[in-house]
Amino acid sequence: MAKFDGVIDRRDMGSAGVIDGRHPAVVKVMPFMPDNGKIEAGEIIALNSEGKADFYDAEDEGTLREPVGVSIFTVDTGKDSLGSVLVHGTVIRSALKNNGIKAEAAAVKVLETNTQIWAF
């Protein structure tokens, strides 16, 4: 059974300062890798071999080296099995993270090249 942090009332339409409003955002709810710690808002996301959202890893030999989106809210994978991922639109470049730290230019370029997400 899927677990999801069911927030009843959230009015922060800026998604923790991740989404840039220049282009309409497309967000998908995706299953996340369980017990993988906290994945912060702004984290570049890839899908692992099981098809679950995980940290993007350029050094990975498998599927994790291909980003699919950006987490727009923090997901505590110890409690939640689902999270919201931006798969199309624009993001604030300074909000992007890779493995919990500010994303380097190379990671941002791979994100823009392999998805329909653009950083400003």
Shape: globular
Average pLDDT across residues? 90
Name of the CATH architecture: Beta Barrel
Name given to the CATH homologous superfamily = Head decoration protein D
Give helix % range.
under 10%
Number of domains: 1
What's the number of helices?
Answer: 1
Q: Main sheet, how many strands, which sense, barrel?
A: 7 strands, mixed
Q: Could you state the order of secondary-structure elements as H and E?
A: EEEEEEEEEEHE
Q: Termini separation (Å)?
A: 37 Å
Using DSSP, what is the number of strands? Answer: 11
Low-confidence stretches: 10-15
Computed structural class: mainly beta
CATH class category label: Mainly Beta
Write the CATH fold name.
Virus Head Decoration Protein, Chain: A
Strand content: 35-45%
Radius of gyration: 13 Å
Characterise this structure.
Strands 1, 2, 4, 5, 6, 8 and 11 form a 7-stranded mixed sheet that branches. The chain has a two-stranded antiparallel sheet with strand order 3-7. 8% of the residues lie in helices and 35% in strands. Mean pLDDT is 90; it is low at 10-15. The longest helix is centred in the C-terminal third of the chain and has 10 residues, at 105-114. It starts with 18 loop residues before the first strand and ends with a strand. The protein has 120 residues and is mainly beta. The chain has one helix at 105-114; strands at residues 19-20, 26-31, 38-39, 44-47, 53-55, 67-71, 75-76, 82-91, 97-98, 101-102, 116-119. The protein has a single domain (25-119), classed as Head decoration protein D (Virus Head Decoration Protein, Chain: A). This is Head decoration protein. It comes from Geovibrio thiophilus.
